[in-house]
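May I ask for a sample protein chain and its fold as C-alpha cells?
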Amino acid sequence: MKRRLFLGSASALATTLGTTLAAPAVWAQSSPKLTPLRFTLDFRINGQVAPFFLAQSAGYYKDEGLDVTLDVGSGSVASITRIASGAYQMGLGDISSLAEFHAQQGGTPLVQAVYQYYNRAPFVIIGRKDRGITHELQSLEGKRIAAAAVEATRRAWPMVARKMRVKADYFNWVTTDFSARDNVIVRGDVDGATYFHDSALSLFSRMKMEELSVLPYTKAGVNLYGNAILASNQLIQQNPKVVAGFLRATNRAIVETFANPAAAVAAAHQREGMLDQKVEVERWKITAQYVGAADTASHGLGDVRKLTLEQQVDEVVEVFGLKNRPSADGLFNRSMLPTQAERMLKA
C-alpha cells in the first residue's frame, strides 16, 4: 500500500526542502482559546487511524486547547517533507524513513518522532498456497512477488534477507501499482505481494484465508518500529505544550479504541462516509496487534526501547548505504509523552 514509503532519494528531498524551508511557517491562533494545529495522516482515512478521529469528535483535542485539522496524506515520505517544509506541524510517518531523512539532512533535526504509533511495523508478504508459499519465509525462494517500485515493505526486505542469510534477490520482484496489487494475486500473475498487514483486507475479501499464507517480517527476527507521530523541531522548541497536549488527547483515544473499536470507527465514519464500519473494525483488530505489541506491556503505548531503535538505525544505515548515522536520541524525543500510567493498556 502506498501509504508506507521509505525515502527514495536524497536529491529529491534536497530539492523539495530547498524550495520550502526558506520561509518558516507562522501559526497564528484562530481564536482566543484554541490553538490551530495541522496534522497530516500518512494516507487515507480508515480503521488504522480511527483513534485520531475519536479524539477529534469526542472533543479531546479541544480539551487540550487545540483546534486540530486532520488531513489525508500521500505516504510516509510526504508526511516527513510536509512537516519539514512547515506546511504541517505534526503528522504520521515511518520512523525508518525519518532515520534516512536525518542521515541525509545532517545538523539539527527538522522533524522528530514524539510518539511511536506502530510499536512494530506490520510488514508482511502474502502468498498463494497453491503456488507453494507456506508459512515459512524460505518458501518464497524463486517466487514472483509484487510490490510498488518504492515502498517500505519492499525496501525493508534486505533486512529480512540478512537475518535469513540469503541473498537479497532470493525471489523475483514484479513491480506493480498499489491499486493493482490485489488483482495480480487473484489472477495468478504473481505468487504473492507485499502489504502492511492491516491493509490486506481488500485481498482477504476476494480470496479465502485458507488459500493464503501471511508471512510477517518479524518471523525472521526483524523487529522494526513503524509509523510514529512526528512533530516539527520548530513546534517542539517554540511550543512543546502543544505537542504534549496533542499526545495526551491522542493517547486517550488510542486507549479507548482498544476498549471500544466500534466507537472510534464510527468517529472516522463521520468524516469519511464511504467507510464500511464492520470492515474497518476488523482492520483495527489487525492494527491493534502492532500498536499494542508485546513491548507495550512493560513501557506502555507510544514509547520505544532505545536498544531496539538503535539496532533499527544500524540496519537502515547499512542496508541503504548511508554515509551518516543518525542519533537515536535525535530521532525519538520522549520528553512530551503522556505519563506511563496513562499509556498502559488494561489487561
About this structure: The first strand starts at residue 35 and ends at 40. The CA atoms of residues 203 and 209 lie 9 Å apart. The longest helix spans residues 240-259.
